[in-house]
Specification:
alpha/beta, Spore Coat Polysaccharide Biosynthesis Protein SpsA, Chain A, 2 domains, seven-stranded mixed sheet, 15 helices, 7 strands, 10% strand, elongated
Amino acid sequence: MINLEAVGAKFDELHVCVIIPTYNNFSTLGGVIAGVSSYTKQIIVVNDGSSDKTAELAGSFPFVKLISYRDNVGKGWALRTAFSYAIEQGYEFAITIDSDGQHFAKDLPVFIDRLGSVRDAIIVGARNMNQDSVPGGSSFGKNFSNFWFKVETGLHCPDTQSGYRLYPLLLLKDIKFITVKYEFEIEVLVRAAWKGIKVDSVPVSVYYPPKEERISHFRPFKDFTRISILNTILVIITLLYIKPRDFFRMLFDKKKISRFLNEHLFHPHHSDTVKAASIAFGVFMGIIPIWGFQLLVAVFLAIPLRLNKALVFIASNISIPPMIPLIIFGSYKMGAIWMGANTGSLEFSRKISMESIRHNLKQYILGSSTLAILAGSIIGLLAFGFLKLFRKKVVLA
């Protein structure tokens, strides 16, 4: 039996509020507010330009703090507005719950219990989607979103589309968000993870009414397109900035290097063959002549090839700036094997660049492809031997 007074006291003690963004959900909003108020009166309702009697209904609850504006902007804007307001009111955490009745107030204590041990994380309410009433589109959307979140952050979250969440407001306040509609719930998770904020989860219940009774403002084509565009942008930023940033930060952090080696190089979740193949493929992709797209192509191909994406990414960084002159020079010399009497000459110096081999592009392309195969094969075999030797030493120890 849940002690409602104890839960309410925890809300006050931890400075937690409940935010309910709403748009034309007059028929369900009252029940949601009433349910939440059984656990806490710290409730903020954001009326996102509703054209029904939402404002009057929310205002009829004397304990509700109401934010209301004329035009419908989007769920993301409603949440961003509520976050700023909640911080001004002295709240440190906010639980968001949808106003359409899909979420249950009885799960609020689950978030509060987890907050007792995890203060620096977004806590996502992972819905039970194994129900006959769950629309097929919702299951697909969840899986689609989870996949791209993993690509963009390297983290696993069981339900990135759930709107039932607990946010650590003070940790998010300095992030300048750009989205205002449903895709905000993707942006906030990814950008929080980039900042080092943890993403945790707790199990929650979900209710999907019969199709004829279901009220949803999600526009499948428009909103899915917006989410897809956002994910495209986030993936590009991940590969061109976030991953290289994290890689160079790791180089100067012994604990991170040790953790990375244990998780990706020595951990048994991948075989030695897969690990060595991942390193070999990364080296290959770092040398082949598609400058500017090497990391992007390497990580994307690692997914269908079922390789260790982290090892592929690290190995592909063989083409970092200090190594570029060596790679170009080696490629150029390797290409001489194929050119015969048409071989060009190139001296190794600081002036080596792509421009310096412009007039002998064929030699460079043939040579770099050969060098990529040779270097990838040799380094892959060395990695395989090292992993086998390491495993043997661990067994003997």
